[in-house]
Design goal:
By secondary structure, this protein is α+β, with helices and mostly antiparallel strands. It contains three helices and four strands. The protein has helices at residues 18-33, 62-69, 72-82, and strands at residues 5-12, 38-45, 52-59, 88-94. It has a four-stranded antiparallel sheet with strand order 2-3-1-4. Helix 1 (18-33) packs antiparallel against helix 3 (72-82). The model has no long low-confidence stretch (mean pLDDT 94).
């Protein structure tokens, strides 16, 4: 059974910090992709609200996500550089995908 988890992080900065926020998120994503339990880490910027970004992260399992949250780059970049620019955030975790039979 596939045990991977999907995490979405919908975050916003102020409009005047939007570009810097994006650069820091890219730096953070690069560090996260190097984690052994990180399967993917993508960042998308809102077309209508350029200060809003959506990160879609996949981890091998919940333990890999816990390891991610205790990493040095999470503390340094995530908490030290990203979080001070955040004005709104919504982070959600989802279980492994369900097998959905095709429509007949």
């Amino acid at each position: 059974m596939d045990r991977h988890v999907l995490v979405t992080a919908d975050t916003s900065s102020t409009p005047e910090n939007a570009d810097e926020f994006g650069r820091i998120l890219q730096k953070f994503a690069h560090a996260c992709r190097a984690e052994p339990g990180c399967l993917s880490y993508e960042i998308f910027r809102s077309v209508d609200q350029p200060e809003r970004y959506l990160s879609i992260e996949r981890y091998a399992d919940k333990e890999a996500f816990t390891t991610h949250r205790s990493s040095a780059h999470f503390r340094q970049i995530g908490l030290g550089e990203v979080l001070p620019l955040v004005v709104a955030r919504d982070i959600r975790m989802y279980d492994a995908p369900l097998d959905v039979p095709p429509i007949q």
